[in-house]
Amino acid sequence: MLRSVVALLLALAGVSCAWAQAYPARAVKVIVPFAVGGPADIYGRFIAAKLQDALGQPFVIEDRPGGGSIVGTDAAAKSAPDGYTLLVMSNTHTVNETLVPKKPFELMKDFAPITGLNFSDLIMVIHPSVPAQNLKEFIALAKAKPGALNYASSGTGTPYHMAGELFKAMAGVDIVHVPHKGSDQARTAILGGQVQMMFDAIPTMNANARAGKVRTLGTTGSKRSPVTPDVPTVDEAGVKGYEATIWLGLMAPAGTPRPILERLNVEINKVLASADVKETWGKQGAQPMGLSIEGFDKFLRADITKWEKVVKASGAKAD
Known about the structure:
Structural class: alpha/beta
CATH topology of the largest domain: D-Maltodextrin-Binding Protein, domain 2
Number of domains: 2
Radius of gyration: 21 Å
Mean pLDDT: 92
Distance between the termini: 61 Å
Number of helices: 13
CATH architecture of the largest domain: 3-Layer(aba) Sandwich
Low-confidence stretches: none
Number of strands: 10
Oligomer: single chain
CATH class of the largest domain: Alpha Beta
């Protein structure tokens, strides 16, 4: 009897291994629930191209922004758990577990972790028309005119939104949140002067800052970014203890076979560990993550708990 059970288990293991090796047999859809041109879109396309090279089948990006990531994420949650639909996600998702409790999905119930992709600091910028040359002057202006200034984000619950709410709470200022349908629209708003301030990812805003299209007040990491070594952190510039980042990861619908998740994890982590990716992303202000499936699961649960505390402490609301 024991021999029969062992033989069956070995046979099943062989089938699972063969199944994983045969994957993918056709194109894989990668849903990005954010707008074109933002970090999730840019790095999602990068990883999709690398997976296509490694696995020999197309990995096709499908941008489905809306609802602060909820529209595209819901579409991914309702997809077949067969490895042919993946989701690029971020700390927007871990924030929304508290900020938007009435969603059509639950992150850790309806999705399976694959791995973390990267993380980067944000950069705080203002339009040049704002009469403030540094962070302390901007805070003084905001305190003198409560509710008169506003800041753009790529939508409710996004890292840009939460960075702004955390700043408001820690700096003691009243600045109005203006959510947009994507980071591209928010970026257009700050560049055009329709809003006064924005937190954005360094890789997508730094060129505008260098060109003088916006004025930089600080970066949001615990130490200065190597991309902008002359720019102080928000902590250094006057809001002690302030820190906020944006990170990206990859998940699949719950129930996706474990061998497929493992194969994707291995292939993506190979990419993230390569010297050229570390160098290229480092110059852009992004650092590869690369975690085991279990490690990413633990990371996600801890991030949900972290942002639950921030959302409740800041009083942030879904717009």
